[in-house]
Amino acid sequence: MTIRVLLVDDQPLLRTGFRMILEAEQDIAVVGEAGDGQQALEQVRALQPDVVLMDIRMPRMDGVEATRHISGPDKDGPAKVLVLTTFDLDEYVVEALRAGASGFLLKDAPAQELVQAIRVVAGGDAMLAPSITRRLLDKYAEKLPTGEEPVPETLHTLTEREVEVLKLVARGLSNAEIAADLFVSETTVKTHVGHVLTKLGLRDRVQAAVYAYESGLVRPGGH
């Protein structure tokens, strides 16, 4: 199956570079390009890509707003957004993740990492280590709710074990690490993570980690 990719960046030279890297792969096709968020939305509607490679800082409409329109909470279209950023801890990245992005990648990442990221995101997974998510959320904790807000009703749908698993996901542990921590098999952990995502209506581990912080289940800097 060919992964259809839309490139969104306000620098034509960067788009050309990304296109050359991606078109060398047999399972990836670049179906279009856009120079700003507004154009990106038009192209998503017209071209129906599987993955949108999204720059953050752009004229007319930035990548965060465009991401919200493409894959926000009320959107169920097929396109997944992979955000590109110049800095490892960009304050906009947290906003992009909350807006529905499936992950982020540094613009200077090796070519093979870019290709792998697109495959991972197209497959429905998140493309960033949960530990990076946690660093981002900790760093920009002041942008998040204080944790004094009422616990969302959806949290009550989880079993005690599922809540434990969600906390560990938010702390940045991998499935293998969670399995070791809870003395269960990795397969069991995968099942629990799947149940958590389904019950809470979340797309992937990234959104689960964000949810854990926003619901007050996990405190920034704490456990």
From TrEMBL:
Coiled coil: none annotated. PROSITE patterns: HTH_LUXR_1 (PS00622), HTH_LUXR_2 (PS50043), RESPONSE_REGULATORY (PS50110). Gene3D superfamilies: 3.40.50.2300. CDD domains: LuxR_C_like, REC_NarL-like. The keyword Lyase does not apply. The modification 4-aspartylphosphate is found at residue 55. Residues 151-216 form the HTH luxR-type domain. Keywords: DNA-binding, Phosphoprotein, Transcription, Transcription regulation. It comes from the Bacteria. It holds the Pfam family Response_reg. The keyword Transcription applies. Residues 4-122 form the Response regulatory domain. This is Response regulator transcription factor. It comes from Streptomyces durbertensis.
